[in-house]
Amino acid sequence: MTSGNVFIDIINKNSGKGHAVEYLQNKYGISIDETMIFGDSMNDLSMVPRAKYSIAMANADPDFMKHCTYKIGTNDEQAVLDTIEAFLDGELESVLGD
Q1: How far apart are CA 46 and CA 63, in angstroms?
Q2: 65, 26, 78, 59: CA torsion to nearest 10
Q3: 1/18 Cα distance (integer angstroms)
Q4: Per-residue pLDDT tens for 68-87?
Q5: In contact, 70 and 53? CB cutoff 8 Å
Q6: Buried b (16+ CB within 10 A) or exposed e, 12-41
Q7: Labelling 48: which of 14, 23, 25, 76 has CA 20 to 30 A away?
Q8: How far is the C-alpha of 12 from the C-alpha of 34, rounded, in Å?
Q9: What is the pTM (predicted TM-score) of this model?
């Protein structure tokens, strides 16, 4: 799978970010409804089904964006931090919209 414009990730079919999220959910008793993921490349795609909040960065691969429920700003704008802070403040809808 691609990872950015010039990189290729080669991973075992039984590993990857989605499996890591699933492992942590199982280990700590975290449900999909309690999970938020952020991504920008197709190597993040395996995390999407593991989270209620699948969030693409504004500069994400367009094919990845199609699979996400939400889109936020870029890392240069500290969009991930702002989203997490909004969640902790109970104001997630103000960042994500409907």
Answers
A1: 13
A2: -20
A3: 14
A4: 999 999 988 999 999 999 99
A5: yes
A6: eeeebbbbebbeebeeeeeeeeebbbbbbb
A7: 76
A8: 27
A9: 0.82
CA distances from 74 to 25, 61, 82 (A): 26, 12, 11
Contacts 24+ apart (CB under 8 A), 38-41: 38/72, 38/80, 38/83, 39/64, 39/68, 40/64, 41/2, 41/3, 41/4
Q: Is the dihedral of CA 3, 49, 26, 87 positive or negative?
A: positive
Compute the C-alpha angle 93/32/17, nearest 5°: 105
Is the CB of residue 56 less than 8 Å from the CB of residue 39?
yes
**Position 33: which residue type?**
D
